[in-house]
Amino acid sequence: MVAFAHNYRPANRVCLKCDKKFDSQGPGNRICRKCHKLNARYAGNCEAWLQSQRGVKRHNGEVIICGC
Superkingdom of the source (predicted)? Predict the structure, then answer.
């Protein structure tokens, strides 16, 4: 366990992503383990995959075609 300067202690907090309560490990831990794993899962995906999830990329109304 990490010691914090202001005597912060683990607490039951609400996840900033899913709004469910979880046991936080300290002041820097505001996202639950499940949401943290989801974030890590999407961090390594390429831009082409992310674009397919978001939809078509446009500039001034015209579709941008990427050569990726």
Answer: Bacteria
